[in-house]
Amino acid sequence: ALQGGMLFPRDSPSREVKDVSGLWSFRADLSDNRNRGFEEQWFSRPLEETGPVIDMPVPSSYNDITQDAKIRDFVGWVWYEKEVLVPTRWIQDRGTRIVLRVGSAHYYSVLWVNGVQMTEHAGGHLPFEADISSVLRQSSGGPCRITIAVNNTLSLETLPPGTIQYMNDRTRYPSGYFVQNTNFDFFNYAGIHRSVLLYTTPAVHIDDITVQTTFSDNIGLVSYNVSVLGGSKAAVKVTLSAKDGRCVASSEGLSGVLKITDVNLWWPYLMHENPGYLYSMEVQAIAEDGQTDIYTLPVGVRTVQVTRSKFLINNKLFYFHGVNKHEDADIRGKGFDWPLVVKDFNLMKWMGANSFRTSHYPYAEEILQTADRHGIVIIDECPGVGIKDIRSFGNVSLAHHLTVMEELVRRDKNHPSVVMWSVANEPASEMPPAGLYFKELISHTKSLDSSRPVTFITDSNYARDQGAPYVDVVCVNSYFSWYHDPGHTELIRLQLSTQFDNWHGKYQKPIIQSEYGADAVPGLHSDPPMMFTEEYQRAVLQNYHSVFDQKRKEFVIGELIWNFADFMTAQTITRVVGNKKGVFTRQRQPKAGAFILRERYWRIANESG
Ligand code: GCB
Q1: Are 585 and 444 members of one domain?
Q2: Which of 272, 411, 456, 572 is deepest in the core (most CB within 10 A)?
Q3: Is the per-residue pLDDT at 140 higher than 80?
Q4: In this model, does residue 401 exceed pLDDT 80?
């Protein structure tokens, strides 16, 4: 099990946050063995003393920042460095803990401060941090030189998995030539993708908070658990305030239940005139010497329930009409960017989308916080995409997958917007080892969080899928008239009805169409429709929709378009400068399909409202 919590760093009367993102020094290790940086210990001195450096913005993928294809397509270690100034009072006050936190870096990271290794982390989409107080105090107010080496190589033991293939035919490839293979189509953007923060806490500090909520009639119940580190005898006080600042409940002790009369529930938008309602839960940990740590967590009170044919939020029917996304945009790649986040939420609301799946990896915490506030529902997916090789079902891979789920639940457990966990996308779930693999993975996830349903997304045949017995909701991807029977939109209705009846007949579980769609190169037109035109994408959508409309009266509980926006992919003969299945372009302009969805989603919202 993991050590410690991973609370999102927030300012408070006892805590300070300093964002050290911005321009960093950067070098890709292009040496033949890809290992010169470690051999020459580039972390031990300022990076510019060991060779040439370039400017690299953080957060951002490094791939599209330069004009150099070698950097765009680089596989191996890249080195980031920044020297920052730490306030003297942080250093002088020995009761202050100073923590360095990386929101995410893809994929494997090693972190040094002033040449001393602080931590390493495997996984490109979840945060990691280190207490750097003592290293900083040793250099007594001197500089704080942060070095982060990041390696984007994917192997059978990483999530997502990949393989490195050495090309040994010397008539076609130079010696040492290799390529990175993956079983997913999105570009393997790399670098420091989210903010790097320094933050402080008192020595005795709130390490983690877990809340679970329910209600009965007008009474809301928030059960909480707090863990405090750095001193065993701290007293804990908890107060819950409404939006107007009025205290509605309070409690003492490391765990307890807060009772709210006349509770304002957290509702998805389109279901309530006051959606995304959040209380503020202020936790105080008071050490024996009187030093107090304060952390305030937003809390939404809501319930989630799955029946044989329905999905309920606060005991009301919830139908997912939403999108699959990617963290992807021009220039910055997968780097966090507020303008992009706010634009995407505005577009989702414009089209009446009430939900999205974080395909195919955990998104930035700021995105989940935005969804909490706006009342947009999330299926939170771990980076288990492209598990196709039978070796990826081995024990080492499973152990890592369990750890990643622990990290994901630890980070996202308190978000009311998150209503379901997805442990994987399109694994080879018909392979014999998949049964045991998904049984363990899903039961482990449920042991970490008993309050949310768990699923994985399948594209296997219903009769052969080994993982579906363990999911709460069956999520199916299909691309009728695209990867199967290309051009034949007239087959969609028959094939889709059969797909739904097969799955529901076998499992008696509710079903989400978790992907469907077609590529449309914006501006390409034809009537009658042909593949890759906007008209074709529209026709595929309309055919799918007519079947959704029949089946949502029965057991289909959601539809998520693939994809919200066009996104970059590896270069292959099936992709034209990226995947064009977006209903928006990569620059977030609508194609014809976006207007179809907008009409439809608002119509569905108005029916049920
Ligand atoms: C899928 C994958 C998704 C791809 C999509 C496509 O099934 O889950 O990651 O981008 O198909 O367009 O091929």
Answers
A1: yes
A2: 456
A3: no
A4: yes
